[in-house]
Write a structure and sequence with these properties.
By secondary structure, this protein is an alpha/beta fold. Helix content is about 30%, strand content about 20%. A hairpin with a 5-residue loop joins strand 24 and strand 25. It is elongated.
Length: about 575
């Protein structure tokens, strides 16, 4: 698949554009046509988005029809000698125009030295350039630089892009540090946060972060998010989460919200030009009810096609009333036990309700393993937090005439307590609790049964087991364990590997090692929403395609008299071979 920002044969290079003189200097100029995007024009003229915005800062406020774009056609540095050239090895993100500006050449001079460059540059290609760049440093030199941290007061007519360039950070990093700020919502005098110091490799000539990624099947380089684009057909997604970016000691909910948002931005950029323009409205609820109410009072919220709701029940209730009153879809991702979807036609409950989850899990067991006899492990002095599911499964067995066994014990389960089982029979063991401490009390005996019996033996369990590691996880594999869960990411899956690499390239560090991973959640939600809104134009009564993502899946069905619930559930099979199979049901 062609890389997103790799120079390909251009339909029209900048050097073919007309030239005008402004202030005694010459510029290539172009008048934007309706429906054109920053991405398409960058590809057409062989420039990067950084170059586009460096010479046309107003693009940061959105690309508009009839807007005039200008690119310098003069030598910026004046230090290039026509007789002094050196070789330069092209890196990802380089363009002919960018190199000509960087090394004090006109674009025509660069192409005269490198005729093949008119057909595009490729990584590793050697080209001729002037001996030194516009800062007097060698072409091949680069260094590690630490970006600034702290705050900045926006000056009159200063753009967010200009600020990001000043501090050597990307627009994405700036927006992440200031969730209440976007390209349509800032003004002079506003104090914004500059992201904490991180190290980026930068080219000395322009201090632009080198962040190109190697996997081009999703996105070539994280540069300017599509929140900058707008039109009458723009998809608008509002995110109202507790970012608390200004807090010195941010709680876990704020860290999770930020990581979710990071994944969402990668999804926006990954879909790229295969979508209508996308606008993300980002609001910081500050983790309080008053903060949530302040967000609801913001008139921009009414622009949204879909709102991603806060993670607290009282705040969700306020947003639910707002969505119902204004006819805006509300996506509840985090308050699992909420039941507003039963009466609110705009509520979208993204986690299958636990009653539906139990029902589907029980039906899957009965239909897929008809030869297996259920063995309920009931530790009398233990926890019974999954009694509801166990009782449901036992009742269904009774209704279908399927026999089951209930083994009651105290302390540790021993193999002697299971001696009455037929050694050639097939059994599925099900504990009454999802807690790992309870599981540890039955695993040794089950391993003995597995080794001594010739029939099929397996263990059935719960989503909470997804966090189990080390020796207990090894035993789960040996017992051919099956678990039902709302989410899961297979470690060996190529799509997860691609996302992990992208996340590191964008943000310099991997996602937090937790279950579920919030960055993957944000990515899946973003991909689902954008793809769906492209199809149904914001009306989920028309269509909500099934989406099977890196970690989460979405299959929304309508609740009679209410809104929508996600009906997707996974069965995870931990096999003796050490693999995990994920089955959507």
């Amino acid at each position: 698949m062609a890389a997103l920002f790799v120079n390909i044969t251009a339909l029209a290079q900048l050097s073919q554009l007309p030239v005008k003189t402004v202030g005694g200097k010459q510029y290539y100029y172009y008048q934007v046509k309706p429906q054109e995007t920053v991405y398409s024009l960058c590809r057409r003229f062989g420039v990067s988005q950084d170059e586009m915005l460096r010479y046309n800062p107003s693009v940061a406020d959105g690309l508009k029809a009839d807007q005039e774009l200008m690119f310098p056609a003069y030598k910026e540095s004046g230090n290039a000698s026509s007789a002094s050239f050196t070789e330069y090895v092209v890196t990802k993100g380089d363009t002919g125009y960018g190199l000509s500006r960087r090394f004090g050449m006109t674009l025509d001079e660069f192409y005269a030295l490198n005729p093949s460059a008119r057909d595009g540059l490729r990584e590793g290609q050697t080209v001729k350039v002037s001996g030194r760049d516009s800062n007097g440093t060698r072409a091949v030199e680069a260094k590690e630089e630490t970006c600034a941290a702290g705050t900045h007061v926006i000056a009159p007519k200063e753009t967010l892009y200009q600020i990001s360039q000043k501090y050597g950070i990307t627009m994405t990093q700036l927006l992440l540090a200031n969730p209440g700020v976007d390209t349509d919502n800032y003004k002079a005098g506003t104090v914004i946060n500059i992201p904490s110091a991180q190290t980026y490799k930068v080219v000395e000539s322009d201090k632009v972060a080198v962040a190109a990624v190697t996997d081009t099947s999703m996105v070539e380089r994280p540069s300017i998010p599509r929140v900058l684009y707008s039109s009458e057909d723009t998809i608008v997604i509002a995110v109202a989460l507790p970012f608390m970016a200004s807090e010195t000691a941010r709680p876990k909910s704020a860290v999770n919200a930020t990581e979710f948002y990071k994944g969402l931005l990668i999804a926006v950029d990954s879909i790229g030009n295969n979508s209508r323009p996308i606008k993300i409205l980002t609001f910081d609820t500050k983790g309080t009810l008053d903060g949530a109410k302040a967000v609801i009072a913001d008139p921009r919220l009414r622009e949204a096609d879909v709102i991603i709701a806060p993670d607290k029940a009282d705040q969700l209730a306020e947003f639910a009333r707002f969505s119902d009153d204004n006819g805006i879809y509300l996506l509840n991702l985090f308050v699992i036990r909420d039941e507003t979807y039963r009466t609110n036609p705009y509520m979208m409950h993204a986690n299958i309700p636990h009653t539906s989850m139990y029902e589907k899990g029980a039906e899957y067991f009965l239909n897929t393993f008809p030869e297996m006899k259920l063995v309920v492990l009931n530790r009398q002095d233990g926890l019974k937090d999954k009694a509801e599911f166990v009782e449901l499964l036992k009742r269904k067995c009774d209704e279908r005439g399927r026999k089951y066994i209930e083994v009651e014990f105290s302390g540790l389960l021993t193999s002697d307590m299971l001696s009455d089982l037929d050694k050639s029979g097939s059994y599925a063991f099900l504990p009454m609790s999802s807690k790992s401490d309870e599981l540890s009390k039955v695993l040794p005996a089950l391993m003995t049964v597995k080794n001594e019996h010739s029939g099929n033996i397996c263990l059935w369990g719960y989503p909470e087991w997804l966090v189990i590691r080390n020796d207990m996880l090894e035993k789960m594999h040996m017992l051919d364990t099956n678990v039902f869960s709302r989410f899961y990411s297979v470690e060996s899956d190529q799509s997860e590997d691609r996302l992990d690499k992208l996340f590191v390239k964008w943000y310099g560090s991997p996602m937090a090692d937790q279950v579920p991973r919030q960055g993957a959640y944000g990515f899946d939600v973003g991909m689902f929403l954008i793809k769906t809104l492209n199809v149904n134009n914001g009306d989920f009564n028309q269509s909500a395609p099934v989406y099977d993502g890196v970690q989460n899946a979405f299959d929304f069905i309508r609740v009679p008299g209410g809104g929508w619930i996600n009906n997707e559930l996974f069965i995870l099979n931990y096999t003796p071979a050490g693999t995990v199979y994920k089955i959507g049901i």
